[in-house]
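Q: Given only this backbone (255 positions), what sequence would you predict?
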């Protein structure tokens, strides 16, 4: 029987690449996000390739929606082997003294509270079976801070802490927890952070080769296909052109 992975935020970027990668490696998938047309399109294309897919459309910031979505899973779909806690975002890049409270709330509600809501719904299904693997997508922003990163960095530091805390709490239940901390990955992330300003978003990656969603999906696949006695606790994955949050090597534009 195929393993089942639930991936949050599968409508774009790292989550979508992970869905494609795991589907190509024999997983059945529960894919989630707020954009139903994208979920249906992904379910259609992966379904055509023979993957069993259950799309669940909900806003991860709403605890009742999260609870109901997981409760709606029937039969074998409840036997979730892998939970990829990926849904998340940065909004704004203002210094703390100028920050918008609504941006802070979106980040805290999505990256921290949303991750907790879905984990609270799925972890008991894993502990009941004494097997499971939770992969938390944190960030280099969960290891370091940078100008204007303030609340986003705080949410990702919290994810980093929760990965350690979950590993401790779930130890007795045979559940693995892997924390993944990427540097720059070119996805819709910067378009969301800059509130639709495509030029500002493109400038983030100017003059360097960033990671792709597929690079992170490769690491996730590696982590979740280790033998049962092996847990990759923490993976920091950077573009070669990025040493840390602040040191980035950019090539001058030609011509
Ligand atoms: P994208 O913007 O491309 O994807 C974000 C995903 O999160 C989308 O599928 C989106 O789905 C989902 N999402 C956002 N808000 C909600 C919500 N309220 N409810 C449900 N789903 C939601 O960005 P990335 O792929 O880059 O980001 C994925 C994760 O990786 C995030 O946690 C991010 O912080 C982290 N990360 C990203 C890095 C980067 O440089 N890109 C580096 C390090 C970490 P929808 O809009 O359909 O709801
Ligand atoms: C996304 C990477 O450096 O913009 O988590 O915080 S960064």
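A: Predicted residues:
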């Amino acid at each position: 029987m195929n393993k089942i992975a639930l991936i949050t935020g599968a409508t774009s970027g790292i989550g979508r690449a992970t869905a494609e990668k795991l589907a190509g490696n024999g997983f059945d998938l529960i894919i989630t996000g707020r954009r139903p047309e994208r979920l249906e399109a992904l379910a259609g294309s992966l379904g055509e390739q023979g993957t069993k897919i259950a799309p669940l459309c909900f806003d991860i910031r709403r605890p009742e929606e999260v609870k109901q979505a997981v409760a709606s899973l029937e039969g074998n779909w409840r036997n979730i082997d892998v939970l990829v806690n990926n849904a998340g975002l940065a909004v704004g890049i203002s210094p703390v003294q100028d920050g918008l409270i609504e941006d802070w709330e979106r980040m805290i509600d999505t990256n921290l509270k949303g991750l907790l809501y879905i984990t609270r719904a799925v972890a008991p299904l894993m502990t009941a079976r004494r097997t499971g693997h939770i992969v938390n997508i944190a960030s280099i922003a969960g290891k370091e801070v940078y100008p204007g990163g303030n609340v986003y960095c705080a949410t990702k530091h919290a994810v980093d802490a929760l990965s350690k805390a979950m590993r401790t709490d779930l130890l007795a239940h045979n559940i693995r927890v892997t924390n993944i901390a990427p540097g720059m990955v070119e996805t819709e992330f910067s378009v969301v952070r800059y509130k639709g300003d495509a030029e500002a978003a493109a400038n983030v990656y100017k003059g360097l080769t960033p990671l792709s969603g597929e690079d992170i999906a490769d690491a996730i696949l590696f982590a979740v296909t280790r033998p049962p006695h092996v847990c990759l606790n923490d993976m920091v994955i950077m573009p070669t052109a990025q040493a840390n949050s602040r040191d980035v090597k950019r090539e001058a534009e030609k011509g």
